[in-house]
Amino acid sequence: MFIDSHCHLDFPELAQREDEALATMAANRVGHALCVAVKLEEFPRVLALAERHPNLFASVGVHPDGDDVEEPDLARLLALADHPKVVAIGETGLDYYWQKDAPEWQRERFRTHIRAARSCGKPLIIHTRAAAADTLRLMREEDATDAGGVMHCFTETREVAEAALDLGFYISFSGIVTFRNATDLKAVARYVPLDRLLIETDSPYLAPVPHRGKTNEPGWVVHVAEEIARLRNEPLERIEAATTENFFRLFRHAKES
């Protein structure tokens, strides 16, 4: 089976057609999906999905892009993470694309998440956009290696991938890798070691070819796997098996059903 290691099934575009999205997963042999939280205010919806469906898991965290949300503290994150269906902390990280002044509150929020992950022993889901140098610096300063995790929806350079791999992190590719103009990213997908590779949709965003422009969904993660197999000149079955094994190795609190 395939696993979507990062999706947002609680977002309105997918929540209103939950049963259909789960049916598409089944039709495409996508056995599990990790539903990723972006706000504490919306975490109950994410957790409810994971509790309702045995093949869904949840994370808890606050996305770096946004200062009008409930700010997490260490105790709050640890309390929410203390649930058997919560398998990761995040998504967290740094995003300077819209916050061009690179605000300190983003860095403090990221540090809090790293400390929570280290404390509870659950891995990090890291988002970085226009902030790779600071993201890696804080990962080193806060000993993120102790928690481990994944650089989700990876769009950075090979050098950033190398640095993340050196810190013990996994690299996850989304539908962007299927885009025709993603030449540099395709090269990174060829480079990442097979035992550090994950696939995701980041749905409802970033639908892969041949669905580009549509509302994305977890069942379409198979197209990400197909493109990676093509790029690496490897059988699809090998990518399927490796990414599934990698998922359960990283998210070790996830129980296969």
Structural notes for this entry:
- With 257 residues, the chain is an alpha/beta fold.
- It contains ten helices and eight strands.
- Strands 1-2-3-4-5-6-7-8 form an eight-stranded parallel beta sheet.
- Helix 6 links the parallel strand 5 and strand 6.
- It starts with a strand and ends in a 7-residue tail after the last helix.
Name the helix and strand elements from N-terminus to C-terminus, one letter apiece. Answer: EHHEHEHEHEHEHEHEHH
Q: What structural category arises from helix and sheet content?
A: alpha/beta
- Beta content comes to 15-25%
Number of helices: 10
Could you tell me the number of beta strands? Answer: 8
Query: How confident is the prediction overall: mean pLDDT?
Result: 97
- The radius of gyration over CA amounts to 17 Å
- Ends distance: 12 Å
Largest sheet descriptor: 8 strands, parallel
Estimated helix fraction: 40-55%
Are there runs of 5+ residues with pLDDT below 50, and where?
Answer: none
Shape: globular
Strand order of the largest sheet: 1-2-3-4-5-6-7-8
Write the layout of secondary structure elements.
Blueprint lengths: L1 E6 L4 H4 L2 H10 L2 E6 L7 H10 L3 E5 L13 H8 L4 E10 L8 H17 L3 E6 L2 H10 L7 E3 L6 H9 L3 E4 L9 H9 L5 E3 L21 H12 L3 H15 L7
Parallel strand pairs: 1-2, 2-3, 3-4, 4-5, 5-6, 6-7, 7-8
Helix pairs in contact: 4-5, 5-6, 9-10
